[in-house]
Amino acid sequence: MMQRLRGLGATAAPIWVLTAVLLVLPFTLGGSWTFMLGLCFANSIGVLAVSMLVRYGGEVSIGHTFFTALGAYSVGILDTRYGISLWASVPLALFMGVVFGILFAWPSRNMHGIYLAVTTLALALAVPEIINNLDALTGGYEGLYVATPFVPGIEMELQRYYVALALLLAATFAVARLRLSRQGMAMLLAKTHPAAADAFGARRVWARVAVMGISGGIGAVCGAALAFSGSTVSPGGFTFWQAIFLLVGSVVSFYGLSMPRVLIGGAFVTLVPQLLSASGAWIPVFYGLALLGMILLGHYMPRIQKALAREK
Amino acid sequence: MTFWDTLLYDLFPLIWSGMITGCLYALGALGLVMIFKCSKVVNFSHGNVAGLTAFLVYGLSSGVLLSLSWGAAVVVSLLCAVAIAFLIYSIISPLVFESDLTSTIATLGFGLIAQGLTLVIFGADIVALDLPIPRFTVSVLGLLVTGYDLTVLAVAVVTIGTLFIVIDYTKLGIAFRAMSENPFAAEVCGLNLKSVHYFAWISAAILGVIGALLIVPTTFLSVTTVATFMLQAFAAAVIGGFASLPGSLVGGILVGILMNLFTFYVSPEYSSTFLLAVILVALNIFPNGILQKVGGSRV
Amino acid sequence: MNSATNSLRGEQIALSFGGIKVLKGLDVEFRPGEITGLIGPNGAGKTSLFNCLTGAYIPQQGTITYAGHSLDGLSPAARAGKGIVRSFQHVALCPDLTVNENVMMGVARNYSAGWLNAFLPLPRGRKEREEMKRAAEAALTDLGLPDVGDKMPGELPPGMQRLVEIARAVVGKPSVLLLDEPAAGLNNSETRDLMKVLRKLTSTDLVMVVVEHDMDLVMSICDRIYVLNFGEIVALGAPEEVRTNPEVVRIYLGSDDDE
Q: Cys-Cys link to B256, which of B21, B120, C107, C214 (CB 3.0-4.6 A)?
């Protein structure tokens, strides 16, 4: 039972150890690995956004590329058009993510489960189209190139790594804190017993809007990190499939919210296409199998454990 | 051009062709709704499996895999679609009775696999799949009607008619209706949940393949064609209330017409965004589908 | 102090669902310092009346007032803000929260630390959590559950879960406490513990309403009892009066033999 509490994101020693290891890693790894890990941290934030919606809202999103695109283009546009670095663009991304999360949550406040999932699907489909058609701003198919350093004078390669790591740490920390807050507890109560939450002053609609706002904000931060660490922003990174991959990452990490857990999901999302890049057609097959495998594992694991326990 | 000319040369043809494509969306939507009605699962693999089957027809008839006649290729592919539907449901059936959301995510997995297999076997190229559809054009009251239009209409009417007859009069169909109304009571009465679920999944697969094959002549066949087409079917199902078969029929035709009008009069580039807006608006005005307000739906 | 002014009243409450009259113009008064029972056979309308009081249903006619102020049009959440709280027939504790945290939700409405405090370890949010935690622990101790705060609700037996729910309801010092079948699913000894707790909770300014099937519980803890049947009040009085009322015996207590 305490495990469940921890799954929601309490701090523990492993997180400190992991953080320490990740902090020194770039000095022992090659450049391409440093680059990959940066992307991996960024995607982990996206996985966190999806898992957070599942854990606190009880809802599944297959459209989170809407929010990652929002964040990525906030960074990309401010950088290439106005030369403004992350100092301003990350807060803007967060703000945009929260605002659009709320804007989406309000008209969909009475939808649940499958209805909401289908609506987020439509959201994901609208994204590439919007990006391509606003090409004066977004660069269309070509995309944008993010090159302004966050801290001038430090090697860009290291910045791409550490900024993503810092954003990941900040996001997982904030979500872990949320678990202890009045608002976080109210959302959890509203998820399981909306009537009870209502009876104690936490409205169901408030909880939904708040969860979507937070999840959208985290999603946008993921996009900002992707833009900076990946150095390019283009519509190809925000397709419908990418949205599903984020969900796959979330399922693979069993909807965990702690840093090690979301890292597993992020690594899955980032590394699988990389490892299979030679045989691109197999990537969806592999993702599909992994998704099914994890779901079936989650379904049969308790039974297997029970059977094993009985034999002992 | 006068107002009436505009109406005659733009609006009517747009509505007509929208209705034709709408019939196909309805075929897709009916499959989604059948599965949802009895097992509460949204089958996200619907479009990709139908796409894979359409490619199978191409592969079997063009010589890529075999050089069968057109009819034989369709029959073999339909059998494959049925087998795939059977396999998918068999794998996720233990999940269906536990959590509808988990099983819905699982269907995404199958969608990914079907999409990947299509890529692996047939590649990412666009292919032309020719169906033996009568090619003629007649003018009815100034409206140009093609052989394709009439074929689609005829196939849709026959397919949907057959489906409704099956649901209304066969034992399995009646069990399906009973189960959609109240699964618990139906099970207590001795109906086998699983066989009804299989019935729904297999019917849905057949409807999906028919819809996919008929949409191909209007475009080319590529990995994404059918999946994109099925998204309109999703919208149709959502607008129809997702749990009403007549609703999805009306929803399909409505989506077909609305999309046509929007792409012609407003902008072809924002069609998905428009679809999103339609879904959001429809769900807010008619949370239970457009037919719910008019009166209870029977099927 | 005139206790009658702080009572919860319903005047001419009428409710119908699709033409079926569930409540037919009831006048009820629940006084502070008393435990009032609502009993009646299945379908009598007691749960409907209860839901009108909590704000879950909106009656077609009549008004509900507390201490002279109308509650009409207030949502359950808004009524909670006025100190009117309830428990649930089916235990509605959040399985993701510890017992303590579940109880803390009962006082959450009194606090207002903002979102910044939710995400960052700022002093105000910490202080708030400390205060809420202390209040929750005190409430649990009052109800005889001092050592379960850090457990998850699922680890407790049903009787304790029920008490935790009551702790959540009373921790915010409510002025009206509405209990929906508090003894449902409890065994005899658990019910006895519950009765002790409920009796201990009575105070001069607390309005307590209990909807309950368990006759022994109602008869032994309630000061006054409303008996409903077919949406109308059949009897009102102290337990002895109700027990001996021939009408009540006929429609309700007599049917015990059949069960």
A: B21
Burial of A171 per CB tally in 10 Å (0-12, 13-18, 19+): buried
Q: How far apart are the first and last CA of chain A?
A: 22
Q: Please tell me whether residues A183 and A214 are part of one structural domain.
A: yes
Q: Do A1 and C155 touch (CB under 8 A)?
A: yes
Alpha-carbon A231 to chain mean position: 18
Which of C97, C103, C179 is most worth mutating to test chain A (most A CB atoms within 10 A of its CB)? C97
Q: Where are the domains of chain C?
A: 3-83+174-258, 95-157
**ipTM exceeding 0.90?**
no
Q: Collect all residues of chain C within an 8 Å Cβ-Cβ radius of residue A201.
A: 77, 80-81, 108-109
- Give whole-number Cα distances, B224 to A144, A280, C178, in Å: 26, 16, 57
Q: Which residue range(s) make up the domain with A79?
A: 2-275
Q: How far apart are CA B127 and CA B57, in angstroms?
A: 12
Gyration radius (Cα) of chain A, Å? 19
Q: Is B62 exposed, middle or buried (0-12, 13-18, 19+ CB in 10 A)?
A: middle
Instruction: Say yes or no: A185 contacts chain C, CB-CB below 8 A.
Output: yes
Structure tokens at C259: 């069960």
CA atoms within 13 A on the CB side of B210: 26
Q: Are strands C35-39 and C61-66 parallel, antiparallel or unpaired?
A: unpaired
A38 — pLDDT class (breaks 50, 70, 90): very high
Which positions in chain A touch C172 (Cβ < 8 Å)? 200
Query: Which of C74, C87, C94 should be substituted to probe chain A, the one whose Cβ sees the most A Cβ atoms within 10 Å?
Result: C94
Whether A251 has its CB under 8 Å from any CB of chain B: the answer is yes
The answer to whether the CB of B248 falls within 8 A of the CB of B236 is yes
What pLDDT, in 10s, does the model give residues A212-232?
999 999 999 999 999 999 888
Which residue in C133, C153, C117 sits closest to A192, CA to CA? Answer: C153
Phi-psi domain of A257 (left: phi exceeds 0; alpha: psi -120 through 50; beta: other)? alpha
Which residues face C21 on adjacent strands? C16
pLDDT at C102 over 80: yes
Chain C residues within 8 A of A1 when measuring between CB atoms: 151-152, 154-155
Q: Is A303 on the interface with C (CB under 8 A)?
A: no
Extended beta strands in chain C, E state: 8-17, 20-30, 35-39, 61-66, 69-70, 84-86, 176-180, 207-211, 224-229, 232-237
The span from the CA of B31 to the CA of B204, in Å, is: 4
A221 and A306 together in one domain: no
Distance CA A14, CA A132 (A): 43
CB distance B105–A60 less than 8 Å?
yes
Q: Are A116 and A59 in contact (CB under 8 A)?
A: yes
Distance of CA A237 to the CA centre of its chain: 14
**CB A200 to CB C108 under 8 A?**
yes
Question: Do A114 and B42 lie within an 8 Å CB cutoff?
Answer: yes
Please state, in angstroms and rounded to a whole number, the distance separating the CA atoms of residues C207 and C177: 6
**What's the pLDDT band for C259 if we cut at 50, 70, 90?**
very low
Fold of C3-83+174-258: Rossmann fold (3.40.50)
Q: Are strands C8-17 and B143-146 parallel, antiparallel or unpaired?
A: unpaired
